[in-house]
Amino acid sequence: MLVHEDREYLLEPGAEFGTDLGVIEVPEDVAAGDTVETHLGTVFEVRELRGPDLFDHLERTGAPMMPRDIGLVLGLTGVSRGDRVLDAGTGTGILAAHLGRVDADVTSYEIDPEFAEVARENMRIAGVDDRVEVRTGDLTAHLDALAADDPLHVLTLDTGDAPAVVERAGALLVSGGYVAVYSPFVEGTREAVRAAREAGLVEIETRETIQREMDFSDRGSRPSTGGVGHTGYLVIARAP
């Protein structure tokens, strides 16, 4: 990633890109810590792509999960190196990329072929294409085969039919494994909780994600009046 003051560009080695600050020619052997100068003399710093940068720079195919929600999923499921994770509703792939960046072994299902192709490229850019496999298809059609595989440590769902998958979570997860269901609507959240109870899952908790930025000025300090405080609902449950 190339950075100059408030400018950030995600460019591949060897790429050429025109800006109002001049044409950027990225060397093939570029590395983090290097500088790249445009033909007008503007200097850009080369930085390693970090997790928070993914939200701003990966190609989007819809509304990606917000960093605040991703943080809750990672923290509340304890996903870690070597965990087997099944993810559904890949979309842009922001969550799947973060799961891969903690060195989990991730299989992610996306029903839209075009979205899936974009997500695969995003996994390459994020540097996790060796740990995240994006499959095209409807997860519910593959549950029987997946239940016959090695059990999962974590199941993450961001789909409208998440309750149907939660009903099968007991057959998919190791004892003590977690399921995390994200939904922007309370109706889908309620159905996910119902499915978790009927499936015999335990430690079922539901959270609404609300976060406000703070503004500081000479006049005083207060929560920002801009932005969206609410992003969605997150259901966390555990296999007994």
TrEMBL record:
GO aspect biological process, one term: methylation
Keyword annotations from UniProtKB, A to Z: Methyltransferase, S-adenosyl-L-methionine, Transferase, tRNA processing
GO molecular function, one term: methyltransferase activity
Keyword Ribonucleoprotein recorded: no
Highest taxon above the source species: Archaea
Keyword Transferase: yes
tRNA (adenine(58)-N(1))-methyltransferase catalytic subunit TRM61 C-terminal domain sequence ranges: 68-215
Name of protein: Methyltransferase domain-containing protein
Species name: Halorubrum tibetense
